[in-house]
């Protein structure tokens, strides 16, 4: 009898460890995979982030420098302003010798210059971005330094009215993410329930068999 109870407790312990492992993967590592889409966010790839206040931050590494562009969301036929930061990637110091020029290109290859104004802070510039029609664009920043010229490219820059299809897609993605987490939790609980049920049946069957033999 003691041996059966010991095996049952050991089985329950193993099942609990399995449950904890699955839960950690789904709600820890799994959640991160959903959040990032499984993409490789290496230093060589441009990154884009949007704050709750609506400020868009785009950054990328170009040679030994990092180029960071900040601006509010682009709306059709409305001029915009922004900030450009050019820093040394290793130390995050402003690259005072870098001279940038910027342009924005539409899908039909029409190129519009962006006015760049140097500030008193090394590597920091103010931007005046002209009004643009709705569509997708590519922003290019050419850096002239003592080591030569390099270009930072930000593609898929969207000029659109707020709360349009992009917002709808974001809401749908958020709903899908919540549904997947709920489904994953239900699966984990179901697996644990089945394991517990099987362990109880096995332990009960062995106990009845032993009692029958003893009788």
Descriptive key words:
single chain, 215 residues, alpha+beta, Immunoglobulin-like, 2 domains, nine-stranded antiparallel β-sheet, 9 strands, elongated
Structure, explained:
The protein has 215 residues and is of the alpha+beta class. The chain folds into two domains: 2-38 and 169-214; 47-161, Macroglobulin (MG2) domain (Immunoglobulin-like), CATH 2.60.40. It is 40% helix and 34% strand. The protein has two helices and nine strands; from the N terminus they run αβββββββββα. It has helices spanning 2-36, 165-214, and strands at 47-50, 55-62, 65-72, 80-88, 99-106, 111-118, 124-129, 135-145, 148-159. Strands 1-2-3-4-7-6-5-8-9 form a nine-stranded antiparallel beta sheet, with no helix packed on it. A hairpin with a 2-residue loop joins strand 2 and strand 3. Helix 1 (2-36) packs antiparallel against helix 2. It is elongated and about 80 Å long.
């Amino acid at each position: 009898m003691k041996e059966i109870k010991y095996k049952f407790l050991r089985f329950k312990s193993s099942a609990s460890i399995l449950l904890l492992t699955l839960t950690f993967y789904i709600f820890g590592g799994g959640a991160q995979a959903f959040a990032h889409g499984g993409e490789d966010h290496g230093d060589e790839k441009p990154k884009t982030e949007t704050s709750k206040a609506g400020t868009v931050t785009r950054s990328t590494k170009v040679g030994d420098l990092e180029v960071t562009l900040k601006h509010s969301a682009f709306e059709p036929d409305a001029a915009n302003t922004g900030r450009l930061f050019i820093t040394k990637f290793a130390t995050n110091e402003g690259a005072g010798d870098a001279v940038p020029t910027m342009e924005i290109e539409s899908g039909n290859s029409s190129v519009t210059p962006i006015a760049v104004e140097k500030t008193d802070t090394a590597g920091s510039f103010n931007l005046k971005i002209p009004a643009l029609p709705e569509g997708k664009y590519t922003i290019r920043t050419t850096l002239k330094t003592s080591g030569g010229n390099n270009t930072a490219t930000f593609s898929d820059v969207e000029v659109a009215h707020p709360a349009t299809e992009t917002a709808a897609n974001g809401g749908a993605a958020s709903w899908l993410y919540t549904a997947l987490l709920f489904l994953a939790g239900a699966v984990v609980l179901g697996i644990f329930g089945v394991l517990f049920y099987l362990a109880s049946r096995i332990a009960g069957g062995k106990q009845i068999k032993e009692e029958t033999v003893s009788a």
